[in-house]
Design a protein that fits this description.
Blueprint: H1 15-32, H2 44-49, H3 59-72, H4 77-97
Amino acid sequence: MLSRNLRPPGLGYNAVDQDVDRLIVRIHRLAAHRGYDREALVSPMLKRLMPTKRPSGDPVAETAALRTRLKESGIDSKAVAYLTASVENELDFARLRLT
């Protein structure tokens, strides 16, 4: 089995794209969380990707903007895995802030 970063590029919608989609959903969930504090983020890489303000009423536009930022950053599968783990950690911290 090939690792994700060794797959041929012409396969269309691949596993990295699916991981990016999951990452986008998690980032939106973190940004909308009541306990989210952008200044308390631990990961500088995640902080650069997080929106500067709370989500507005247009999730389609926010998703498109985040997808554009992710593509412009030249993110690979290792970075996606790192960011996904960072978002999960930050969600835990956000929950703890509310207790």
